[in-house]
Amino acid sequence: MTRNLSGLLAPAAAVLLVAVVVAAVAGAWPPFVAVESGSMAPEVERGDLVIVTSTDRFPWGGLVGAAEPGAPTRFGSAGDVVVFDPPSDGQKPILHRIAFPVSAGEDWTDRADPALLDGDCATIAGCPAPYDGYITYGDANGEYDQSAGIAPIVREDWITAKALFAVPNLGWVRVGVDAAIARVGLLPTAVGFGGLAAATGGVGALLFGRIAARRTVRDDRER
User: Fold this and answer.
1) Which pLDDT belongs to residue 11?
2) DSSP code per residue over 66-79
3) Which of 21, 53, 134, 217 could form a disulfide with 57 if both were Cys (CB 3.0 to 4.6 A apart)?
4) Cis peptide before 59 (omega within 30 of 0)
């Protein structure tokens, strides 16, 4: 019974170990985020799992906007893609691209792309900039977050991680977990998904074991 229990729990433990190792390398926890909107399409689609790192983690340290010289290319365009969490009630973290930094009191529309603006500094709530921060946008949105009212100017301390690459469709698992936690709570979700992972791993181990056993018997007969 102890051996069977260990075999069932091994896959879940392996998944947790991989997550811990990735987090240690990335310097962020959790080391991935699930994408729930299409605002960064086509490079990042709904249901993708995005691997992230700490913003100061070598060799990906620092934050570089799309308009800055020598900006790195990430997800098909220039500039870092970051996860930021505005302190607004009920708003989820946002995965968008940095356009450029701004300083307190600046009329940042002078440096903005007119195609991504809806109005001028007199009509945009975050202009002049009330504090130092960043202008951001979703690649598929066609307008700065601060112009569209999606988010205020993003303070640096709101930015929790920098995106490195995306794994297509793998994020649906994370979305499902988050939905289950919101519905039934953390503990029942952990027990349920842990049991499912263990059972799936146990069934897989059993099937592979039977295949290996049959192959051994067949080899013995052939000898």
Assistant:
1) 45
2) TTSTTPPEETTEES
3) 53
4) yes
Q: Quick check: is 102 in a domain? A: yes
Alpha-carbon distance of 180 to 56, in angstroms, equals 32
Domain that holds residue 191: 1-25+185-223
At residue 12, the pLDDT reads: 43
Structure tokens at 149: 């009212």
Nearby residues of 49 by Cβ (< 8 Å), 6 or more positions away: 32, 33, 34, 35, 166, 167, 169, 170, 171, 173, 174
pLDDT value of residue 43: 94
Domain final residue pick, 168, 193, 214: 168
214 lies in the same domain as 157: no
Query: Same domain, yes or no, for 7 and 49?
Result: no
What local confidence, expressed as pLDDT, does residue 91 receive?
A: 77
Please give the pLDDT value at position 176: 57
List all residues 6 or more positions away from 202 whose beta carbon is below 8 Å from its beta carbon. 4, 7, 8, 11
Question: What is the mean pLDDT for each group of 10 consecutive residues in the chain (223 residues)?
Answer: 47 43 45 90 94 81 90 93 86 93 97 95 95 98 95 95 92 63 52 48 45 50 55
When divided into structural domains, the chain yields a total of 2
Same domain, 64 and 128: yes
Tokens of 118: 């809806």
The pLDDT value recorded for residue 223 is 56
State the Cα–Cα distance between residues 33 and 85, nearest whole angstrom.
13
Same domain, 206 and 161: no
Quick check: is 63 in a domain?
yes
